[in-house]
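> tool_call: predict_assembly(chains=four)
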Amino acid sequence: MFTDKAVLLISCIDKPGIVAAVSTYLYEKGANIISSDQYSTNYQEGMFFMRVEFSLPGEGWTLSQVEEDFKPIADKYAMNWNLFPNSRKKRVAIFVSKEDHCLVELLWQWKAGDFECDIVMVVSNHEELRSAVTGFGLPFYHFPVTKENKLEVEKRHIELLKEHDIDVIVLAKYMQIVSPGFIEPFKDKIINIHHSFLPAFVGAKPYDRAYERGVKIIGATAHFVTEELDAGPIIEQDIIRVSHDYSAAELKRVGRMVERSVIARALQWYLQNRVIIFGNKTIVFK
Amino acid sequence: MFTDKAVLLISCIDKPGIVAAVSTYLYEKGANIISSDQYSTNYQEGMFFMRVEFSLPGEGWTLSQVEEDFKPIADKYAMNWNLFPNSRKKRVAIFVSKEDHCLVELLWQWKAGDFECDIVMVVSNHEELRSAVTGFGLPFYHFPVTKENKLEVEKRHIELLKEHDIDVIVLAKYMQIVSPGFIEPFKDKIINIHHSFLPAFVGAKPYDRAYERGVKIIGATAHFVTEELDAGPIIEQDIIRVSHDYSAAELKRVGRMVERSVIARALQWYLQNRVIIFGNKTIVFK
Amino acid sequence: MFTDKAVLLISCIDKPGIVAAVSTYLYEKGANIISSDQYSTNYQEGMFFMRVEFSLPGEGWTLSQVEEDFKPIADKYAMNWNLFPNSRKKRVAIFVSKEDHCLVELLWQWKAGDFECDIVMVVSNHEELRSAVTGFGLPFYHFPVTKENKLEVEKRHIELLKEHDIDVIVLAKYMQIVSPGFIEPFKDKIINIHHSFLPAFVGAKPYDRAYERGVKIIGATAHFVTEELDAGPIIEQDIIRVSHDYSAAELKRVGRMVERSVIARALQWYLQNRVIIFGNKTIVFK
Amino acid sequence: MFTDKAVLLISCIDKPGIVAAVSTYLYEKGANIISSDQYSTNYQEGMFFMRVEFSLPGEGWTLSQVEEDFKPIADKYAMNWNLFPNSRKKRVAIFVSKEDHCLVELLWQWKAGDFECDIVMVVSNHEELRSAVTGFGLPFYHFPVTKENKLEVEKRHIELLKEHDIDVIVLAKYMQIVSPGFIEPFKDKIINIHHSFLPAFVGAKPYDRAYERGVKIIGATAHFVTEELDAGPIIEQDIIRVSHDYSAAELKRVGRMVERSVIARALQWYLQNRVIIFGNKTIVFK
């Protein structure tokens, strides 16, 4: 039963009457629309995207009832849709390696009450960040990864994540390329952060190459993980300005700063059910 | 008759069913909702704000018919509402004194096709910018203003603006304080731009005082003009970073840069009917 | 003895030959200039400011020797000057009340190795942040402050700070107005952070008033503390963009974000001896 | 003869005593150092870069005399060096095709007195922008370019530019790849502007591809032209934030905005002799 708020996310082929159908349905159920965002595109696809946040002040409601009720409308318009009650906090797992900047930012904002979620666990292929994690009262799972055991470890990851009913996985500087077999069961639920440069420096030591080229801005991109490396739908990006007198080490430090703010915003929007994936892009209703 | 697009702006006290009523109405008229933004607040007021952009593909429609049709719904919810057909471009008058930076930015973006409006005239209390204006093929009206003739000139301004059916007046560095008698007939239709500092420097020579205090950012604010000087609803703000080695003159130059981009964005949003005024603030649906 | 790096900060009335005198002196001592920034102004004052970072590869040098050597040159030009050897880390005390965002940011960056300093202690007028501080292995001093005991407590603060040889005090959301008697012994050594708005909202509940006015940016200012409240020389400022759908609570959250990045940059520049105070402004050699 | 200001730009292998030698030289000549920036790197190269701005109040000085005087010092340290008297304004040629946004920005800032230079001519491979240019009282040269006549046209470009003693060429959306034969005589003197994306989209229709990937920021890069396409030393970069509801056309419009501000800043710094090229990067003394 939920008596407070929920978010409905919809994507489907655009047709007249969708907003009317959804809002009339909610009105008749006694819901109060708190905010409603809608975006249509006729670029190639003619797609319709909607986010409705509403409260259901009545009693006796169950989530499954609302879902059952809404099904005929959803079917009529062939919607992809999800209903997220606020009472059901998303369950988050954070994957890290040795660098702590993204991890600590997320844990601090979470402890400060800025994230509406349960951070359930931190998983790492190294030991280094154990005390940082347990200091927040969170379990820390260490799975050493080698070329040989990688797929086996990923199976154990999946078991652990399933067992704890994890909704979203944040790769917060997890320096392992995850395999398709890991991505598949968590499709559209794995968020990664990586540095970004203008222009791009593909390959090893990007900060050294950015230094050599004398870039004037350092960026970061948070995106969903897909099979193609670092090419999934972008959730958020940002940059910080630098100058010639930043060493490669200082560029890295700036990179850490921009990475931690970008991953935090991306997770926030995901937790608030503001992000819809379509093809290889996102709609982010801010 | 309009067969293309229109924007409906609504503000009223929040009640269940408003979105349903509006979207069902549009659906039944055969309209296609292109985008819909809605914002509700229960901070003090419990107000509801909505912007719907839609197309009306049918024929035989007149604006007055739609307005007449929608009236019962609007009345039921005691809405403040406006319907803006795209076919009716807003008519803009720009007021300037001697500085050209905001004027030229607006005229250039307009000529580049970025503003959907008719810039109808430029009014000035000085002669300096005549050729800049006539070079764009626009009429330039020069009304010298003195302490003695100020109210008389404002009457002639009002006549001229009424005669040309002006929808919005941009004070693009018009260095005169306009009187209540001028504001009243154009309530919520006069946009001003002015520099902003952190902290604020009230009084004369703000750039000199900002220099003396060593400010690190220079800002600008675009706002609607109300009787209280520079205290009307804010439409847009921005800043540019500066350092100790900017002279007061260079701070002014930076101020010009930020002023022209802020006034251009504020006008753009107004022209696209994205701005609703409520009390002393704006809702800007971007 | 110091065999590595040092920074020399100079301010004096501008005259020909200063750069030559300083650089020739350093050359003759065998120093290698790593970076040198110089700024002159003929706005009113005709002042000269210089920051030189150099290494002294030779042996047998003592700080007092260099100071003694340089004195005739300094006297000739009536310089205000300070020599900061890198080997002597600045000793920092952080003052807090109940809000932890600035504190945690500073401690995290310090632990990450980004600040070259010793954070020696945290002082608070409340108990709330004790465990956050002791978790970093730092002493936490709690001095409850009342209207009656305020001056007495400040005396004990001063004793404690003197006893621990503190170089810089960061008021990281210390919600007490410090009195002139506290400022005087730490003149130009107390850094404060506070929110800033465009326009300024003087008085109580600034975020509520910013919400009511519908501001589009939220800012923060780090400055040195002087007797006039929040009017001391500005070290750094920044802003984050917001929109109408931020509640007053969310504006506060954004305020925390911008405050913590601004105070961290201000402290960083101070620790790197990049900040010279002149009159009521700063020269920051970045 | 020059009795006012000049800038000296120096790059050489770092050795002790360079700053002392330069500043002592200037002092002995009676020069007053207005500002002095210096940057050394021991990353790989161990290079030294310096920008000194000074005034020479005395009479009877000629540029060639100063150059002759300074030569022994320059030779001693094997400097690359250039002396730029303020009295000798840089002569600028702007190359354009059909898009006017960068051109108009540069001409407007120039007319506003923000650029200390002579804009001598505008060259285009199209007719479209003739009146925009002649309206500023500038000559407009139209050279249609085909695959067949390209090298021939470039020869005529070079003749024209040499004849008018051009110091810097700004490719302000000149949609032709210039050949090595054109670059060679104007090495380090051709500035180009182009869009930049995170991640990079190499190939045709980058804005369409950025739209498809749903990028959240649109950038621009100003750089010196080298033989490798768009890979020369970066002078300045910036970005503007966008969202999912920007069409590909609107992304292009944002691209124009960021391009014009970036090219203007890059040209400004070049005109003020703030830019030193070293390898494939720039040192920009701001």
